[in-house]
Amino acid sequence: MKLKEVTEGKVRIFVPDPKEYMIEGKFDPSWAPVFYNPKMTFNRDLSVIVVSLLKPKIILDALSATGIRGIRYYVESWKSEQLILNDKNSTATSLIQINVKNNGIENAKIYNKDANVLLYEIKSEYIDIDPFGSPVPFILSSINATIRNGIVAFTATDLSPLEGSSRTSCRRKYDAINYKLSSSKELGLRILIGKIIREAAMLEKTVYPLFSFYADYYYRLFVRVESGARKADENINKNLKYFGECPRCGFQTFVDENCKIKCPICGENFIIIGPLYIGPLHNMEFLKRMIDIYNNFNYLSSFNRIQKLLNVIEKEAKYKSVFYNISKLASKLKVSAIPPIDSILECLGDASKSHFAPTGIRTDKGYEEIIRCVKNLR
């Protein structure tokens, strides 16, 4: 295997040389014997900031591939007492050995096991699940392996089922009814969280989002794990419900049950999806801490993008409602000329942009006020 050295953040690692695995002039990371995706640098950059605040004693990267994620945590976030890197691919673990040594890390434990097997053998304070595709096969085992008040980080790249394009796949993987709706970019994340809550409940545990975001073609989510059957029951009863959107006028809201419900605005039957999580997507105190310290990471290649994302999330996080996609709403209302988003925000007064969509706005003001601003500003 021919290797190429790359720099990411403050570390230098060896990865399979993409030139050796190109097909008809194209390269996909999955074609190489060990997976390394430079397009996930933004994901890893933000995760480095999160881990620097958490300072876990034990870090477990269950699907390590080249080891880049765990190595960056140790070098850039904080030197944990234990760094555990695992991959079931023996070629990957051999490469991890090289990359750990290349970055001067002496105390890393490297395993060559199926991730689920390892997760039922050890416990950790911070577990990272960054799979190629859906995190569903690893949810139960990762929650099981997390100590009380520990953190699990999930990446999900299977947006087709989560956003409602592949309805049968969503039903099969996430046990949720789904359709493609105007705000599906956010609803997909809520379906994922809902699935994690239900899985955790089987272990008499529950989870609460610490920080989450959508970017490019994936969701990234950090959850705190808490123990106790009562907490699990309370979270399910309080925060797992359904979501309805009117296909005619675009009115949307959370609903208690999956049954035939008529839109209170125009009388059309709602399209209902769920179950999904209806609570906050971020811990506000933790988000503030992220914003307070992210300037310490101005060496990151994606620093400007991180700054922009955090600024938007800080503003939208205070609203409880799902964002409205103004372009989709205007289409339903037969409004041909969409007003500038900034003008709509000014009209509403108490509202913000959403990082989920360029034409997304988030506000707790009523549907009628939103419609008034969209129509009157044409």
UniProtKB/TrEMBL annotation:
Any one GO MF annotation of this record: tRNA (guanine(26)-N2)-dimethyltransferase activity
EC numbers on record = 2.1.1.216
Q: Where does Zn(2+) bind?
A: 246, 249, 263, 266
Q: Catalysed reaction(s)?
A: guanosine(26) in tRNA + 2 S-adenosyl-L-methionine = N(2)-dimethylguanosine(26) in tRNA + 2 S-adenosyl-L-homocysteine + 2 H(+)
Q: Which Pfam families match?
A: TRM
Keywords, sorted A to Z: Metal-binding, Methyltransferase, RNA-binding, S-adenosyl-L-methionine, Transferase, tRNA processing, tRNA-binding, Zinc
UniProt enzyme class:
transferase
- InterPro entries reported in the protein's UniProt record: Trm1, TRM1_arc_bac
Q: Which domain of life is it from?
A: Archaea
Gene Ontology terms describing biological process: tRNA N2-guanine methylation
Chain positions recorded as S-adenosyl-L-methionine binding sites: 44, 69, 87, 114-115
The keyword S-adenosyl-L-methionine is assigned to this record: yes
Establish whether keyword tRNA processing is in the entry. Answer: yes
Please describe what this protein does: Dimethylates a single guanine residue at position 26 of a number of tRNAs using S-adenosyl-L-methionine as donor of the methyl groups.
Query: Hey, which family's this protein in?
Result: Belongs to the class I-like SAM-binding methyltransferase superfamily. Trm1 family.
- Please give the name of this protein: tRNA (guanine(26)-N(2))-dimethyltransferase
Q: Which organism is it from?
A: Saccharolobus shibatae
